[in-house]
Amino acid sequence: MKKTVIIIPARYSSTRLCGKLLIEVDSKPIIQWVWEAAKKSKLADEIIIATDSELIFNKAKDFGANVEMTSVEHKSGSDRICEVAKRHSEYDYILNMQGDEPQITPEVIDLAISTLTKNDCDISTLVRQITDIEQIQDPNCVKCVFDNDFNALYFSRCPIPYERNKGEANYYAHIGIYGYKRESLIKMTSLEQSDLEKAESLEQLRALKNGMKIKVAITKLNPIGIDTQRDLNRFKNIVEKK
């Protein structure tokens, strides 16, 4: 029987909010919020936190997580999870779950996993429909277009499609959670960065450029990614209201 592991890449350094994964909200560090959501997944067999930081390693051990140290040289989360995945040949499916999205839900996690396991694809990921013009124009909000079979055609920081005819465009924002077939993760991380990836700073474009198939599923969840102090304050406010 094929098995699935969730690997949460947890880098300490962040250009906009250093050490953010260890910032506590309601007495729990951000990384613990994410790990607890992953633990509730019905489709994952194991959860591993992959980090380059002894601080994160020790904190994860404190709250009971399975955690492994990785190289400090990795340039992306995919490279980090691939290092760990290569140590564990027993897993056929690997889910890359962002360590800075504490609002992620187990239902959404399982949607990403089932989209991978039930389809002929290399990678699975999620999108949500957006109508807010500020989000559509925001380069930090990555947009995705896909075909009638929900295969991703392109990801961009620009508004895609370009709305030449008013009222005809539907916009979808990408949610940064990826499911990989084991061989697909190893293949993608071994490939050279493509010109598209370098231009947009989006590693999923490396996969598309090399003919890999990315299957998309639509969700209504709009999780807050903790990238800035403003994001952190928004999350704190949501937790306090609950």
UniProtKB/TrEMBL annotation:
Its EC number is 2.7.7.38. It catalyses: 3-deoxy-alpha-D-manno-oct-2-ulosonate + CTP = CMP-3-deoxy-beta-D-manno-octulosonate + diphosphate. It is found in: Cytoplasm; Membrane. GO terms for molecular function: 3-deoxy-manno-octulosonate cytidylyltransferase activity. Its main location: cytoplasm. One of its GO terms (cellular component) is cytosol. It is an enzyme of class 2 (transferase). Keywords: Cytoplasm, Lipopolysaccharide biosynthesis, Nucleotidyltransferase, Transferase. Pathway: Nucleotide-sugar biosynthesis; CMP-3-deoxy-D-manno-octulosonate biosynthesis; CMP-3-deoxy-D-manno-octulosonate from 3-deoxy-D-manno-octulosonate and CTP: step 1/1. One of its GO terms (biological process) is CMP-keto-3-deoxy-D-manno-octulosonic acid biosynthetic process. Pfam families: CTP_transf_3. Belongs to the KdsB family. HAMAP family: KdsB. Activates KDO (a required 8-carbon sugar) for incorporation into bacterial lipopolysaccharide in Gram-negative bacteria. This is 3-deoxy-manno-octulosonate cytidylyltransferase. It comes from Candidatus Galligastranaerophilus intestinavium.
